Amino acid sequence: MLAMNYRITLPADYDMGIIRHRVATRGHALDDFPGLGLKAYLIKERGVAGSAVNQYAPFYLWHTAEGMNSFLWGPGFRGLVADFGRPVVEHWTGLAFRPGPAVAAEPLAAVRRAERLAPGEDPADAVARAVDELAAEAGRPGVHSAAVVIDPRHWELVRFTLWEPEPTQVPDEPGAERCRVLHLSRPGLDALGAGRQW
């Protein structure tokens, strides 16, 4: 499993209806994209759910590297670059994925929590702890699914959870970014498996 996220911060007075229209008219293009586990079309709106910015921030879980490459070098991403400029694409290797009790529902919210490992921390211990904690996270009522991923270049762990409730109804957690899900493409959700990825 591979994870990918880019975050396009927009002006404070940007009409987020433009992004909503973009997702409504183009989002279904990835509903059957080969190699894609899921893509959550995420937005943050200034003044909503504690956000200080307007942002378009899709988050992807891929079950094949070929799928991710096909997207990045294909027409979909080229269209985004043409409209918004080339964003920084963060990417991580997958550690574990779990469906939650609301996996059959349409998620309305996402929570992304990033954590840098301390310089002296054993990465194997940190990964084991994060994978163990994922089972409890994914089992919470209202959770669609949850994943934990890592960037071993910067030693950053990211926990990503999709929720059925609205962003304002999701429990607030220190350091967590809450987003609204406009659409979820999930052609290979089952191919992501359940549990740790090794």
UniProtKB/TrEMBL annotation:
Taxonomy, superkingdom: Bacteria
Pfam families found in the cross-reference section: DUF4865
Record-linked InterPro entries: DUF4865
Protein name in UniProt: DUF4865 family protein
Source organism: Actinacidiphila acididurans
Phylogenetic placement of the source organism: Bacteria, Bacillati, Actinomycetota, Actinomycetes, Kitasatosporales
